[in-house]
Design goal:
Elements (H helix, E strand, L loop, with lengths): L8 H8 L10 E6 L5 E5 L11 H14 L8 E3 L2 H4 L13 E3 H11 L2 H12 L2 H15 L21 H14 L1 H4 L6 E4 L2 E4 L3 H5 L3 E9 L3 E10 L2 E10 L2 H18 L5 H13 L7 E8 L2 H14 L1 H4 L3 E9 L2 E11 L1 H12 L6 E3 L1
Antiparallel strand pairs: 1-2, 1-9, 3-4, 5-6, 7-8, 8-9, 10-12, 10-13, 11-12
Helix pairs in contact: 1-10, 2-5, 4-5, 5-6
Length: 365
Amino acid sequence: MSFPRSILIPILVIFILASSATYAKKAAIVIDFDTKEVLFEVNANTKNYPASLTKIMTLYILFDQIDKGLLTDETKLKVSKIASSRSPSKLYLEAGSFIKVEDAIMALIIKSANDVATVVAENISGTEKEFAKLMTKYARNLGMANTTFKNASGLPNRAQLTTARDIAILSHALISDFPKEYKLFSKQKFTYNGKTYKTHNKLMLSYEGADGIKTGYIRASGFQLAFSAVRNNKRLVGVIFGGDTGKQRDRSLKIIMDKEFAELGIKNAKEKKSTIVKKETKKTKTNSYSIVVGTFKYRNNAEKQLKLIKSKYPKTTTDKKANIVLIKVSGKQLYESRFDNFSKKEAYSACKRLKQYNRDCFVRL
């Protein structure tokens, strides 16, 4: 399968595959929503601060309260002095005022308002501390074994920790348990007291099939994103932690999501158009597929990778031609380690086998 964007994988490798303590906060995971199968993961169990991804759980509990009839969209939530004092991002609610549940929901989704998160917590559990205990209880019930919540917003707290895998579990639960409410995550803006706020989820605005869900950032965590997109009736949920900038975070997750959609045989609109043209002009040879097992700055590293894969996984590479190809990414020359002469079926089976051993692999035509 032709997949031009996969040449950008080296950027991803540099960004996320390092395993030293310096890069411990960098992590990613992509799951198939229907089967819950993990399609891609790096450092998925590494603990990190959830930042505003915390608000996914705050919203999950709020939706559950509505579902149980304990609250309605029109319920007015009282703003305490503590809530009004929370740091931005916020709506700057005044102590003693009220905000309706439906507005609180949109403020959490679009504005990621910290004061609103505390308002929700206090009105449900009395105090934010007690609400955090409830959040952790919900987390355990959902199977989020490595998550502990200490507040409803994601504001810095050294004891508030989660993992990319747990956030993927939470995202999946929210989408599946509250499909009607989840549609609100595709909203691009909302207006409150005459002021219009726009979504922080910039990737959702440009990615084909995207429909949510939440961004996050504090200095200690880096830029984070939980994300969902549907193409050809197939939904993938992706989570990425530790971006140095919002743009880098979005670009890296886009690369991963595109790669996993492609490996499922699902193309975006541009690729579909390109494929039609190719079918009209060129026939694909039977064994014209390659698998890429690494991309490197230096040729000798690319050669070492070929030898490593060949020696450790002879079942995958026997009778296949080892090859190093010079490619250009963002103006830089990189060396790609490949094995050639696969049929389409063999190539995808080979990559699947290597991924079972946590080896990065993708298919080229």
